[in-house]
Structures are given as C-alpha cells and as structure tokens.
Amino acid sequence: MNMLITGGAGFIGSHAAEEFINKGYDVTVIDNLCSGKKENLPSSVNFIEADITDYNFSSLFQKKQFDYIIHFAAQIDVRKSVENPIFDAHINIEGLLNILQSTVNSSIKKFVFISSAGVMYGNTDEPADELTPPAPVSPYGVSKLSGEHYLASYHHNHNLNYTILRLANVYGPRQDPLGEAGVVAIFANQMINRKQSILFGFGELIRDYVYVKDVINAVVKCLDKGNGEIFNISTSEPTTVKELFEKMRSNFTDIPDPLFLPARPGELDRSIVNYHKAKNILGWAPLVDLNQGLTSTIEYFKNLKK
Q1: What is the mean pLDDT of residues 269-288?
Q2: 15: three-class secondary structure by DSSP
Q3: What is the CATH number of the domain that holds 33?
Q4: Which helix (H) or strand (E) holds 2?
Q5: What is the pLDDT, as a whole number, of residue 137?
Q6: Statement to judge: residues 202 and 222 lie in one domain
Q7: Least buried of 18, 54, 98, 248, by fewest C-beta within 10 Å?
Q8: What is the pLDDT of residue 306?
Q9: From the candidates 140, 154, 211, 275, which is the catalytic residue?
C-alpha cells in the first residue's frame, strides 16, 4: 500500500509515518521543514522537501499511485491566524485545494483530513459532540471548517472518499517546545531549563489533552471505516492549564512559580469534546491517561537535554 503524508516530518505526522512504515506501507512524506524535522522520520521514508501551496501534486500522482493521503500539513498557530488570517488561509485552504484538485483523476481509497476539535466548537459547557454546531472564533478554526466543507464538496462532485478527524489538544514526544502551540512541550522545556512559565487566562483555561500515540491509533482505524464521517478524537477530560502545570511540576524540583496573565486574542475559555462517535464507529478510545502521557513526554525532553 502506498501512502502520502503531508506535514509528515512534523510532530504528529512523523508519528504517523513511523507507524505506517512499521506496518509495511510504502510511505512518502512531503514537508517544507518550516517546523518539521527530517530527523523525525525513519530512513525508509520517501521524503520530498516542498510546500503544499505550490507543489505539483499532479506530477507526483502520475508517477506514483497512492492508496491513502493523510493531510497533516497546516498553519496551526491560533494567535498567528488572528494576526495574519491571509497567511493562514493561504496554507490551510489554498494548500489543501492544491492537493484535492490533483486527486480528481486518481483512485485514492481514502483522504484523511486532520482538523481541530479544540477550535471548532467555541466555548462549550459540556463536551461537544459532532452534532454541536461549529462556532470557530479564530481564523485558524474558520480555515479548518472551510477545509472540511471542501472535502464534502470533492466527495459530492468527484466521489472522493474521506474521513475527518477533529483532534483535541494533542501532546507528546517531538512536539515543538519553542513554538506558540503545544503548552505541554513548552512547559516541559521551561521546567527542564528552570525557566518561569506563563499561564495565560490566569491558569483557568480548560482544555482536553490527548496523547499523540492515541491520535495515530485513530488514524489507523479510520482508513477502512467512517467514510464521509467526522470524528472527535479526545479524552473528554477537562484540565485547567494550572492543573496541567502542577502535574508537570511534580516531576521536577526547584521550579519557579508561574506568571499569571490574561488570555490572548482568539483563545477559548473552555474546550472539551466528546469522542463517543469514534468509539461506536471506529472502535477507538484513548488508552493513555494524562499522567502516563505527561511522564513519557517529560522523559523524552529530559533525554534531549542529555
């Protein structure tokens, strides 16, 4: 089986590349290495350094018939999308369309679109399910919702099989500790270096954290199930940023007290999602609890420091 993974050198995409190589797939990764790292990839991956917004996918598809496409490549920074929504749309909408248009005359079995539950539903009092009306407040959320609609359009007009995975807040090894997204990696790096952390929203922002290996398990399961469906991938467990910080701090000594600041533009107060649809149709459920996942992630970053 031939698989194309966009953004495959990045945090989540590289775990997918590793998983499918181990399962015997012929994996091609395209990544512009803006945030991804080639060293994240197994040596047997076919790697193409290119940008999804201007790469000639039609030429690639003429050379090689792919059975599956997993689309991770995206601009994922909520704050950056607020500052520059045109840039966000260029990557998340135009980049997606560049790929989709090239699939029109191919025989791809499944296009898996990685979307975001964290920005899709807006503030939610109860865990949002897939029937909750989307209410994105950031341009990033708007671009992801637009991508979902384009998938449905290509299915209607060109018979493209697809599944959409709306991910909660993903964390784990290989997450960028210097980026704007990924608070677990950011906190881990700061604690290892004994630097003060900043807790925006005065530490009261509530999120739903799901471990990266659980996410990859969902990707595997949706290849032959859930055509034309949207699934939330989450734990449905609410955790404040302050609670997360304290859980992580317990793995260290002499960590400075955090600085509490107001929430930034585009940030939600509360984002929790329900994964029961994925459980019922895909047979998926999270297997790694937050304490286990944080321990593994912190150990990864400690080893990087050695």
Answers
A1: 97
A2: helix
A3: 3.40.50.720
A4: strand 2-6
A5: 84
A6: no
A7: 54
A8: 66
A9: 140
User: Could you confirm whether 25 is annotated as catalytic?
Assistant: no
- Which pair of structure tokens corresponds to residue 220? 């595997």
In 10 A of CB 39, how many CB atoms?
A: 8
**Digit-coded pLDDT (tens) for 201-255:** 999 999 999 999 999 999 999 999 999 999 999 999 999 999 999 999 999 999 9
Q: Which two structure tokens, joined as six digits, stand for 213?
A: 């290996």
Amino acid at 51: D
Structure tokens at 208: 């739903």
DSSP state letter for 42: -
Beta-bridge partners for 254: none
Task: Report the alpha-carbon distance of residue 11 to residue 68 in Å, rounded.
Answer: 20
CA distances from 209 to 6, 57, 123, 235 (A): 23, 34, 16, 7
Residues near 36 by Cβ (< 8 Å), separated by ≥ 6? 7, 8, 9, 10, 11, 13, 14
Measured in residues, the chain has a length of 306
Tokens of 141: 């959320």
Domain total in the chain: 2
H helical segments located in the chain: 11-22, 57-63, 78-83, 85-89, 95-102, 139-158, 183-192, 212-222, 241-249, 276-281, 290-305
* Domain span holding position 39: 2-170+210-235+273-281
130 and 188: one domain? no
- Which residues sit opposite 30 in a β-bridge? 6, 48
pTM: predicted TM-score of the whole model, two decimal places: 0.95
